[in-house]
Design a protein that fits this description.
The chain has 269 residues and is an alpha/beta fold. It folds into two domains: 31-115 and 229-261, 3-Layer(aba) Sandwich (D-Maltodextrin-Binding Protein, domain 2), CATH 3.40.190; 117-219, D-Maltodextrin-Binding Protein, domain 2. The protein is 38% helix and 20% strand. It has helices spanning 7-24, 46-59, 72-80, 94-101, 150-163, 172-178, 187-195, 206-211, 241-252, 257-261, and strands at residues 36-42, 64-70, 87-90, 110-115, 117-122, 142-145, 180-184, 202-205, 215-219, 228-234. The strands form three sheets. Strands 2-1-3-10-4 form a five-stranded mixed beta sheet, with helices on both faces. The termini are far apart.
Length: 269
C-alpha cells in the first residue's frame, strides 16, 4: 500500500536535509587552502626571512614559503624572463617599480622595511681604517658590488655625500672609486670577502654588519648616510595572487614588522 506524504511533510523533510547539508558540508574557505608561495628576496633579507617564514606560518596556517635569495637586480631579471616567483622583495624601490611599469605585477609596490649603511672592516683591521675618510687612502682595497645591485647605488650616494662633508679630502669620491678592488654579485658576497680578509673595507647595510661576527662596523656620519627603502610586489603570473597579497600585507604590517626589527630593519621611511 502506498503511503502519501503531505505537503507539510515534504517541506519539513527538505528543510531537515538542507540543514544537515549546511552542518556537514560547509563551503570551503579559499583563503584556508594549503598553498606554496615562492618568495624571491634580496640577499640582505635572507637571515630575517627565515624567522619571518616561521612566524608567518605559525600565524597563518596553510601557506608555506619557499625563499630564494640573491641580488635584487638579478631576481628582477629572472622574473622578467618568466621565473616562477609569487612575491618579489627587493632592497630598493627601483627594481619592483620596473616590474610594475612592465605590467608584470598585480598591483603597485609596497614598502615594507628600511635600512642604513655602514663601513665594515675585518675584525683585525689590517689597513687601520678608523673613519670613512680612510676609504680614499693609498693602497686601500675596497670590496663593492656590481653596478645594478642596490647596495652600489646607495653606496655611491653615500660617497658623494661624504665628499661634501667638512674635513674630507679633495677628490675623495674619485679616490674611493680607484680603490675598488672587486665587484661582487650581491651584498652577501661583499661581506663574505671582507670577512675572509680579501678586502680592507666595504660599504654595506647595517643589518649585514650586525649579522656578522667577523667584521667591525664604522659609522657613517648621519648627514652623509642614506635611507635604504625595501619594497615588494606580487607577481602577476602567480597562481596564488590572493595568498601572496596576504603575506606581503602581513610583512608590512604589525605581524611582520617586529620580526624584521629583531634583525635591525626599521619601518620604511
Amino acid at each position: 500500500m502506498r503511503h502519501r506524504v503531505g505537503l507539510v511533510g515534504v517541506v519539513a523533510i527538505a528543510g531537515l536535509v538542507a540543514a544537515c547539508s549546511l552542518v556537514t558540508t560547509p563551503r570551503p574557505d579559499p583563503t584556508a587552502k594549503d598553498v606554496g608561495l615562492t618568495v624571491y628576496a634580496a640577499s640582505s633579507l635572507k637571515g630575517a626571512l627565515e624567522a619571518v617564514r616561521t612566524a608567518y606560518q605559525a600565524a597563518t596556517p596553510g601557506p608555506t614559503l619557499t625563499i630564494a635569495s640573491g641580488s635584487s637586480s638579478t631576481l628582477r631579471t629572472q622574473i622578467e624572463q618568466g621565473a616562477p616567483a609569487d612575491i618579489f622583495l627587493s632592497a630598493d624601490q627601483a627594481n619592483p617599480t620596473k616590474l610594475v611599469d612592465a605590467g608584470l605585477t598585480d598591483g603597485p609596490a609596497l614598502d615594507f622595511a628600511g635600512n642604513t649603511l655602514v663601513v665594515i672592516v675585518p675584525t683585525s683591521n689590517p689597513a687601520r681604517i678608523s673613519t670613512p675618510a680612510d676609504l680614499a687612502g693609498p693602497g686601500i682595497k675596497i670590496i663593492a658590488a656590481g653596478a645594478d645591485v642596490p647596495i652600489t647605488r646607495y653606496a655611491t650616494q653615500v660617497v658623494a655625500n661624504l665628499a661634501n662633508q667638512p674635513g674630507y679630502p679633495a677628490g675623495f669620491a674619485a679616490a674611493y672609486v680607484a680603490n675598488v678592488a672587486s665587484k661582487e654579485e650581491d651584498v652577501k658576497a661583499v661581506v663574505a670577502k671582507v670577512e675572509l680578509g680579501e678586502g680592507d673595507a666595504a660599504i654595506v647595510y647595517a643589518t649585514d654588519a650586525t649579522a656578522s661576527t667577523k667584521v667591525t662596523s664604522i659609522e657613517i656620519p648621519p648627514a652623509a648616510n642614506v635611507a635604504a627603502t625595501y619594497a615588494g610586489v606580487v607577481v602577476k603570473a602567480s597562481a596564488h595572487v590572493a595568498a601572496a597579497h596576504a603575506f606581503l600585507a602581513w610583512l608590512a604590517g604589525p605581524g611582520g614588522q617586529p620580526v624584521l626589527a629583531r634583525f635591525g630593519f626599521a619601518p620604511p621611511s
